[in-house]
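FAQ: What does the model actually see?

It sees only this:
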Amino acid sequence: MAHRRQLQIGSLVLESPCVQAALSGYSDWPMRVLARRMGAAYTVAEVMLDQFVTSLKRRQRTRRYLMVTDDLRPAGAQLMGSVPENFGPAASRLADEGFDVIDINFGCPVKKAMGRCRGGFHLGQPEVAVQIVRQVCDAVGDQLPVTVKLRRGIDDSANSRSQFFQILDRVFDCGVAGVTVHPRTVEQRYRGPSDWDFLAEVKQHVGHRTVIGSGDLVDAAACVRMLQSTGVDGVSIARGAIGNPWIFSQVRQLLDGRSQPDFPDLVQQKQTLMEHMDLTRTVYTPTDALRKMRKFGIQYALLHPQHDLVKARFIASRTLDAWYQVLEQCYTGAFPGA
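And it is asked to produce this:
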């Protein structure tokens, strides 16, 4: 039987092992607040470039990047960049803004990041990666935990494997509180299945130190399977949480020994969509809120019994009134297919 466990990240002891991952373009303040309300023990903001953080002004349009509210905490911020010396000042700024954990991104596989020597690029240069971690730990290590996001390596070569474990061991020596490991290579990006056996190997290698697993966590059952089959301490839910914030409470239910939870009915889905929009409108202009929630609506629609129709309706909404009409017309018990 599955059992819920606590997740420890440095001095933070979290009530469940469910983490919402940093998701570029998605894990903004509204999504993370909603995830916390739905049972995520901890959330990580969208990745931010080091120089962006240090230069960011507290303007109305940009304040959301640095928002840390009581209903969000504990809150993590994720940094990415290429120059080690830029990371310390950026980490200090994030600590001053109230974030509880600083996460360093050595996992981003996108072409733009790789071409600018960021993210997953550092998996191929262990010395630079370790320099970056030291800069962050020196800047904030006594104040709050530092974690690192990794992929399995640049590619499937023996050299990439060796470099991964070299970085893994040395970042723990630097004092990081834990690592999140996505068991695909940078070269794979998001293609093919995740190698969960690799997660088990990493956890066995580091022993009692904290490892959070990532990859193919599409539903609550997959999250529990990863915890049970690999021995990792927590799960970092990424794409599986977009348009499905209920996944966090569902994992908790399964870990508490309850049966597979049902998905929310249309009325519950409507309430959550309204709540998500309300949060979004507090930090975005009406135009930007519509753009953001049209994108989220497409993902929420995947849980609707007539998902293709509802997806098309969200895509076609060009005003806030039209977006709300999708809810009023499609999210009722009387809607065909409900």
